[in-house]
Structure formats: C-alpha cells, structure tokens
C-alpha cells in the first residue's frame, strides 16, 4: 500500500494535499493502491472529488508525534510506502516511520536532515540548501529541481499547446490559494473593481473564510467572474492575459500554461519563491503581504499596466515560464519511487 500523510484546512490551505493528490493519481495510473492518512475530516471534499480513499486518524494536525502509535498499528509491512508532506513533522516522527516502512518526504525548505529513503524538493530555490552535503553520508535518494514539480494531468497536456499572447490585456486571473485568512481577495477586488477596462477572473479557494462575502458582493458584476470548485483551471489560466497569484505550487501551473504572472508572498514558507521566480525576469514579484497589503496591491497595479503596455514583455515572460516545466514531474517522482522499490526488493531477494 502507498500511503500519503498530508492535511488541509483554513490555516495551511490545500497546497500540501493537492500536490500529494497529483502524485497519487499518477500511482493510480500505474495500478497502485493508494490511501490518504489525514488528521481530520477537512480534506475530505478534495479527496472525494478525485475519488481517492482516505483514513481519518482523529489526531491533531499540529502534533504529528501524537499519531505515531496509531500508525504503528497498521504500518507493519516492508512493502508499505509512506509519502509525507507536512511542515509539522519532527525528527522523532520521521525516524519512527523510517524504522517501519519506506519513507518519502516532500519539503520546501530544509529545517534539518531527516531519516528518509527519498527526499523531494522541486522548488527553483532548492540550491540555497546544502542537500548534497547534508545527505552525502546517508542512503537518502534526492529528487531536486523543477523536473520533479508535480502538476496535474491537465497541465501536462496543456504544455504541448501554444499559449496565445494577445495584443491587448483584457482578462486578469486572480488567485490566493485554498484559503485567505488575511483577506487579500476582498481588499484587492475592492481596490480594482472600478477598472472596467479589465475583466477579473477570481478563483475562491475551498477554505476561504470570506467566500460567501465575496460572492454576495461581486457575483454578477459585469467585470468580475467568481469561480469555485473548478476542475479546469488550466483553461481559465489560458484565456487570461495576466495572472496575479500567491506564491506556491500554482506558480508552476502558470508556468506550464504560460500566463504572464505577477506573484506575491503570502506566508513565511513562501519567502524563498522570489529567489527562484524573479531570476531572469521569469515573473514579477509584488512583495510580501505582511509588509503592507495596500502597498503590495499598488505595486500590482503598476505591474499590470507595465505588462499591458508591452506585448513583447509578455511574450518573453511567457516563453521563459514555459521553458521551466514540462508537466511530467509527478511521473518522474512515481518512477523514481517504484524503481527504488524494485531495487530494494531485488536486493532482499
């Protein structure tokens, strides 16, 4: 059995669970059985949408060590694989798993070296951490770099299509991840809804606390379109001329499509994204929301106008973005895990 240990809620949003879902669907294509281990019922809506099985542990998602005894009750075969994606892990937690089963850890920044069989960091900024040095004397297999970005199949197929950089900027995509406890979408729309020359396509996440308020105020307004629970986000990205997005995995999805992007840092775990995505003017970084939302939104307006004034700049940005990813990262991850599994089995035979 291949287990995924990840959570989603209004605090951590849905990024962790969504990238695990992407990898899980690739395992399913390989006819492998997968089950998600979740602390509580919050991620149910997402897992059921993709018809993936799950087991609710009824534990505290912030205290993962408290679930070790529960996991020990059913992780009892060397054929089990556990793929962990959480910032709440501890050295003791990972060591407990490692001594029982094959363990894979997906991380975005190095807090400390863990006992794992495979470690994944696909972010563009992975090079700022000394993975090769830290894990040099271990048997941990490292999967580093954008070739391992796990993108859903819709982005893999979209990558072979041409993104049309239109003459004029008319449609702007606005996203803020699965939640938005800081109220960015509400403030942004209040600031820009008067710009009737632009149509704003707004993705409201499943855990957005202001979802009903936003819908009530803006749904039906001529230049604002609200989307929820969508399964064709790549199509919406493709029809927009500019995207505004919080940092995170969504930036790689936008790269696969090629939509010129203005991004911002929303949480502390996104603080390194500007290192990777502003290199060579791949994207425009509007700042950190915690340094002042109003100032950040003003910077976004400036950047929208800059991109609107230059189709050539948008063409260059789109090409640089599409050159970064090919949408096959999930397949590479699955292949690496299964190849590693085969090698272990061959060795023990």
What does this entry look like structurally?
There is one protein chain. By secondary structure, the chain is of the alpha/beta class. It has 2 domains: 2-151 and 327-348, Rossmann fold, CATH 3.40.50.11190; 154-322, Rossmann fold. The chain contains 14 helices and 13 strands. It has helices at 15-29, 44-49, 68-72, 91-98, 131-134, 153-158, 184-192, 211-218, 233-239, 249-257, 273-277, 293-309, 311-322, 329-348; strands at 2-5, 34-38, 54-56, 81-84, 102-106, 118-121, 141-144, 171-175, 199-203, 224-227, 242-246, 261-265, 284-288. Strands 3-2-1-4-5-6-7 form a 7-stranded parallel β-sheet, with helices on both faces.
Protein traits:
single chain, 349 residues, alpha/beta, Rossmann fold, seven-stranded parallel beta sheet, six-stranded parallel beta sheet, disordered C terminus, hexosyltransferase activity, Undecaprenyldiphospho-muramoylpentapeptide beta-N-acetylglucosaminyltransferase, PseG, transferase, glycosyltransferase
SSE order and pairing:
Elements: E1 2-5, H1 15-29, E2 34-38, H2 44-49, E3 54-56, H3 68-72, E4 81-84, H4 91-98, E5 102-106, E6 118-121, H5 131-134, E7 141-144, H6 153-158, E8 171-175, H7 184-192, E9 199-203, H8 211-218, E10 224-227, H9 233-239, E11 242-246, H10 249-257, E12 261-265, H11 273-277, E13 284-288, H12 293-309, H13 311-322, H14 329-348
Parallel strand pairs: 1-2, 1-4, 2-3, 4-5, 5-6, 6-7, 8-9, 8-11, 9-10, 11-12, 12-13
Helix pairs in contact: 1-14, 7-12, 10-13
């Amino acid at each position: 059995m291949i287990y995924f240990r990840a959570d989603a809620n209004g605090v951590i949003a849905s990024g962790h669970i969504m990238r695990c879902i992407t990898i899980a669907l690739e395992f399913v294509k390989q006819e492998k059985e997968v089950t998600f281990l979740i602390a509580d019922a919050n991620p149910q809506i997402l897992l059921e949408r993709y018809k993936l099985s799950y087991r609710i542990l009824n534990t505290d998602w912030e205290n993962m060590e408290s679930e070790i005894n529960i996991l020990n009750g059913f992780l009892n075969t060397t054929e089990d694989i556990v793929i962990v994606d959480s910032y709440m892990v501890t050295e003791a937690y990972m060591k407990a798993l490692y001594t029982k089963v094959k363990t894979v850890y997906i991380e975005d920044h190095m807090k400390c070296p863990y006992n794992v069989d495979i470690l994944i960091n696909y972010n563009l900024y992975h090079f700022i951490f000394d993975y090769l040095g830290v894990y040099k004397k271990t048997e941990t297999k490292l999967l580093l770099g954008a070739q391992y970005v796990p993108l859903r199949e819709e982005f893999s197929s979209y990558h072979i299509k041409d993104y049309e950089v239109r003459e004029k900027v008319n449609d702007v995509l606005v996203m803020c991840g699965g939640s938005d406890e800081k109220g960015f979408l509400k403030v942004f729309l209040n600031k820009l809804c008067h710009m009737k020359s632009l149509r704003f396509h707004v993705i409201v996440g499943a855990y957005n606390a202001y979802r009903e308020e936003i819908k009530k105020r803006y749904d039906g307004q001529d230049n604002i379109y609200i989307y929820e629970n969508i399964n064709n986000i790549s199509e919406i990205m493709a029809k927009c001329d500019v995207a505004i997005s919080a940092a995170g995995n969504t930036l790689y999805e936008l790269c696969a499509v090629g939509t010129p992007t203005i991004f911002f840092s929303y949480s502390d775990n996104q603080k390194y994204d500007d290192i990777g995505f502003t290199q060579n003017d791949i994207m425009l970084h509007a700042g950190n929301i915690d340094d002042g939302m109003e100032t950040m939104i003003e910077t976004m307006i400036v950047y929208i106008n800059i991109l609107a004034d230059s189709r050539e700049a948008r063409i260059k940005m789109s090409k640089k973005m599409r050159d970064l990813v090919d949408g096959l990262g999930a397949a590479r991850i699955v292949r690496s895990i299964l190849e590693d599994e085969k090698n272990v089995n061959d060795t023990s035979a």
